[in-house]
C-alpha cells in the first residue's frame, strides 16, 4: 500500500512539474516573439494604456 501511495505522489509531482515547464516555455516563447516583433519594427518598447488615467506607458517586463 505504501508503494502505491508513493507512486501516486511521484506521478502527481511529475505532472505538476510538467505543467510548470509547459507554462514557462509558453511564456518564454511569447516574450521572444514580442522581442522579435519589436526588433523588426525598430520599436523601443510596447505601449500599454493605463485604465485609471488613460495615459500610455512603456510596458514593464515582469518576471
UniProtKB/TrEMBL annotation:
Residues 30-40, 47-63 have a biased composition (Basic and acidic residues). It comes from the Bacteria. Residues 30-63 are annotated as: Disordered. This is Uncharacterized protein.
